[in-house]
Amino acid sequence: MSDQWMVRVEGKEYGPVDEDELREWKTEGRLIRSNEVCRVGDERWFPAGELPEIFADETTPSESPAAPPDLIVRRRTWREILRETIRIYQGGFWRFMVFGLLTAVPMFVLQWYFPKVPLPDLSSGTMETMPAVTVPPICWLMFALVILVWPVSTAGFQYVADDVLRGRQRSLAEQFAAALNKFSRMLGTGLLVYASYFFWFFVPLTAMVALLAGGISVFSLMLYLLIGAFMVYMNARLFINFLFWEQTAAFGDEGTLVALRESKELARCAPDAPRLDRPLYRGAIVASVWLLLLLFLLVGVQFPFTLIRLSGVENPEQAIALMQSLSQAKTPDALMIASDVASALMNLILRPLLAAAFIVVYYDAKARLGR
In this structure, is the dihedral angle defined by the CA atoms of residues 165, 170, 175 and 181, taken in order, positive or negative? Predict the structure, then answer.
């Protein structure tokens, strides 16, 4: 076909002209995108704006350039997840500590002042009634403080991890302001999440205790096991659906239910992928490895204190007496304070590791979902 073109403006036809002349007319303003053109020898007329060789350097307001792809949202191998997790943990360590202290300090004070529950005297051979425990006002105050600062701390962890992953430079004050801006969303979503766990754990547990109190029979034992299995099943489903709730609540702009629905979609996406590449398995493996690491290090931290405490104990009766004296102590001794401080520091140091890993798995899941 010919490279000559006809131009139609308000019913009048001009040409034939070649592409170079069309470019000149376009530069002079004589040819605009809405003018119709037709290749000589063809019968189809169409807007001149559809000629990329003429209007390639121009876009209309309705045809604004597409946003560049988010390079953070991409699929990753396990090696990449590990490498990026370590980079985030190292790059944001001190800011993680600041946001972690928001909850660690009141939790530690709450632990210190919470009244000790004395153990029953097992040596008498009878089970004595547990005395009533009065919780001092400072414990209620610290509990309320934890509830208030926990949404800011949780959101802050997400923003620190996200900024390090993206290489974005934001001050701590800007990250704190962003976390405060998400306070109501994080609080509402968190309360719904943990209320769901509470309901599906304690309601079946109460039913199981009631069955045991009514006497043991074959039927009650079968029903007991059935309720226990149902409790495990429901909490497993909650874990799956809420796997990414902290990330979806922190980075989304919609309501609580939208955040939880997105978390569910991310956790359950890519069902045809290899198991170790599915977001559900990756999240579960990351959480399990982190929990095992936490337990292992906590035992390692507490072991020296336990050895010191048990020095001189020669039989089980002395060990029981020691436990009873500790439970009845009005104030913690130096060894107990040191033990609690070590455990609190270990929790504070390891918490950012989980946040760093999950932000990477979250973006991997978004890539697999196609968002």
Answer: negative
Q: What is the CA angle 171-244-68, rounded to 5? A: 60
Amino acid at 34: S
As a whole number of angstroms, the distance between CA 39 and CA 48 comes to: 11
Q: From CA 157, how far away is CA 154, in angstroms rounded? A: 5
Of the candidates 298, 340, 343, 351, the residue with the CA atom closest to the CA atom of residue 102: 351
Interatomic CA distance for residues 155 and 188, integer angstroms: 13
**pLDDT number for residue 64:** 47
Each residue of 50-70: pLDDT tens digit?
A: 777 777 655 444 444 444 445
Phi-psi region of 370 (alpha: psi -120 to 50; beta: other; left: phi over 0): left
CB 361 within 8 A of CB 281: no
Instruction: Identify the bridge partners of residue 38 per DSSP, sorted by sequence position.
Output: 6
Under DSSP, is residue 15 helix (H, G, I), strand (E, B) or coil? strand
The pairs formed by 94-98 with CB atoms below 8 angstroms and a separation of 24 or more are 95/156, 95/160, 95/172, 95/175, 96/157, 96/160, 96/351, 96/352, 96/355, 97/348, 97/352, 98/156, 98/172
User: Tens of pLDDT along 191-232?
Assistant: 999 999 999 999 888 888 888 777 777 888 888 889 989 999
Query: Quick one: tokens of 109?
Result: 């004070």
| Whole-angstrom distance, CA of residue 205 vs CA of residue 228 | 8
- Strand 36-39's sheet: what is its strand order? 12-17, 5-9, 36-39, 46-47
Which of these, 227, 250, 222, 242, lies nearest to 155 by C-alpha position?
250
Find where tokens 């040819």 sit. Answer: 31
Q: Of 85, 134, 99, 92, which is closest to residue 113 (Cα–Cα)?
A: 134
pTM: 0.72
Residue for token digits 């990414």?
244
Q: Determine the Cα–Cα distance for residues 26 and 29; give it in Å rounded to an integer.
A: 5
C-alpha 4/C-alpha 42 separation (Å) is 10
Which strand (E) or helix (H) includes residue 5? Answer: strand 5-9
* Cα–Cα distance, 228 to 235 (Å, whole number): 11
Cis peptide preceding 16, ω within 30 of 0: yes
